[in-house]
Specification:
By secondary structure, this protein is mostly beta strands. The protein is built from 3 helices and 33 strands. Helices cover 4% and strands 44% of the residues.
Length: 444
């Protein structure tokens, strides 16, 4: 039976028209499609052949439906979220990424529902900017059979509205913010029909365009960690090395640091001085010195953990949380914390977020991808403080949460689920109860 996603706001929003005419695209200043960049060889992105002028090209085109985007330069944003525990509106922080990209008029976006298979939106991910002012969403565009592109959506967590939407002519499978906040480093999928290899792209969020591209990579990117505005570390599927990229010269060949963890997952300490790499063999800690990595320590993991799917560095050095990869066949799937006291926290198939519920109550939140169950752990004791189903909280929603983020300025948790529901949770300090607000839902 096809899974049906329901939320209170989704029903209401589904009744409203959400059309985007050609005239509105022109009013929004939408640029004409750029020439498609092709590779002359699999091994390089540095030799570029533009498509024929006037769109005369033999290769297939990305057909992006923009009916789930509305741009009205003359309209004023409307505050729609209400309630005591709903996200509160506030001015955009001066000098923040949000302030730099705020639009004239109104921009609106909701994930488009795709009816292929069981149905659902095509969302590649959600990440919070380093300054905490913008959430970036990536939506896959194109026909069901491809080729595919990407729609980047920048969303304010102060005014709770879409600030900017732009299109890219490659399919992003993962991305990370560069610490300066105005760029993301995006990993693209291989698309032979467009002569596009696996690669990295530096995307300027203010310009809404790619500023640099890497050489072709041998496989899909597994994990990205940006240590500074000049250095990023990457692993690829089934690779045995950590690749160090110079973001000031992204097309240059990366440096390689051998790793005992094939397809390892990366995470950085808050100050970017320590890189952790986790996999079947254990967790390795490296001191970051520019593009160079110096092995500092290694921790073995018990047998049966399987491939690591999520790794988070805590505030303390060499303290971490990890969870098995969803595709792992581990018989003893666990979430572990700290080398000195590895212990099971929650069950298999969980998404993790390292966050602080308040300055007085540091907490870690783990959310199960299988049933939407959320467990909150107090720090440093790691005592379970709360267990609840975020799907079943009122207003009820249907869809497995696959990404969560904590917003310190609002002291709220944000969830994006597999059905395109985006909602917040805020805790009442007196009642010790969590309240849920649907912010938007997918457009069907």
């Amino acid at each position: 039976m096809r899974k049906i996603c329901v939320s209170v706001l989704a029903l209401a929003l589904a009744l409203s028209p959400f059309a985007f005419s050609h005239g509105q695209e022109q009013a929004a200043g939408k640029q004409a499609p750029k020439a498609v960049v092709e590779d002359s060889e699999e091994g390089s992105l540095t030799v570029k052949i533009p498509s024929k002028p006037g769109g005369a090209s033999d290769q297939p085109k990305i057909e992006a439906d923009s009916s789930n985007v509305i741009v009205d330069p003359s309209a004023q944003p409307v505050q729609t979220l209400k309630g005591r525990f709903a996200p509160q509106y506030s001015p955009l922080p001066s000098g923040s990424l949000a302030a730099k990209i705020q639009p004239k008029g109104s921009v609106a976006w909701r994930p488009a529902w795709r009816f292929k298979g069981a149905g659902g939106p095509w969302l590649a991910g959600m990440e919070l900017s380093g300054d905490g002012s913008v959430l970036a969403f990536v939506e896959t565009t194109g026909k069901e059979t491809g080729p595919f592109g990407s729609r980047v959506v920048l969303y304010s967590v102060n005014q709770w509205r879409t600030l900017k939407v732009f299109e890219l002519d490659f399919k992003i499978n993962s991305f990370a913010f560069v610490p300066d906040g105005s760029m993301i480093l995006a990993a693209s999928e291989r698309q032979p029909e467009l002569k596009q290899p696996f690669a990295l792209h530096l995307v300027d969020l203010q310009l809404g365009a790619v500023s640099a591209g890497s050489q072709a990579l041998p496989a899909a990117i597994r994990s990205i960690a940006c240590a500074s505005s000049a250095a990023a570390f990457v692993t690829v599927e089934n690779g045995d090395s950590i690749l160090s990229f110079d973001l000031d010269n992204l097309k240059a060949a990366p440096k390689r640091q051998k790793s005992r963890n094939a397809s390892g997952v990366l995470a950085l300490s808050k100050d970017g001085s320590l890189l952790a790499a986790a996999g079947k063999s254990g967790v390795d800690f490296f001191k970051v010195e520019g593009l160079d990595l110096q092995l500092d320590d290694s921790v073995d993991l018990p047998e049966g953990i399987g491939n690591v799917g999520k790794l988070i560095m805590l505030d303390g050095r060499k303290e971490y949380l990890l969870a098995p990869r969803a595709s792992s066949n581990s018989s003893d799937a666990t979430v572990l914390v700290r080398p000195s006291s590895q212990r099971k926290l929650v069950s298999y198939g969980s998404e993790l977020a390292a966050c602080s519920a308040s300055s007085k109550e540091p907490m870690i939140f783990a959310v199960s991808k299988l049933n939407g169950g959320m467990t909150a752990f107090s720090l440093p004791s790691l005592d379970a403080d709360l267990t609840a189903s975020v799907e079943e909280m009122s207003p009820r929603s249907s869809g497995a949460p696959f990404q969560i983020a904590y917003i310190p300025s609002s002291d709220i948790l944000l969830f994006l689920d597999s059905c395109g529901n985006f909602y917040s949770l805020k805790r009442s300090p007196k009642e010790r109860k969590w309240y849920k607000t649907i912010i938007f839902a997918a457009m069907k």
